[in-house]
Write a structure and sequence with these properties.
alpha+beta
Amino acid sequence: MAAVPVYRWRLAPDGLATRRQLRARGLRPGGQDVAAQLERPRRRRGPLVAYLYSIEQAKPVRLMTPAKRAALAKANAARRICPECRRDAGYVIPPSLGMCATCAFPDEQRAA
């Protein structure tokens, strides 16, 4: 693999974009290799690195199929179900608690 050019923060040439920038334009890298690297210096740690891709070689984002959309909706719904009381919490249950706030803090809910 050849060495990729490295640019400093905000000094990348036109025609290159990060994954997020491509996505904002409705594009994806589409299997192309990294065209360049962007580095943002930090004081006490190594630099932040972002990979740049050619906008010309980018492909359009694939549309979500109905089956994928249904699977994603089912997965998101499962993240809202409390494993203790089996009710829809109305929000994504935090992994740190592992259950809805009502089940995690029952004494505080009765006092309110």
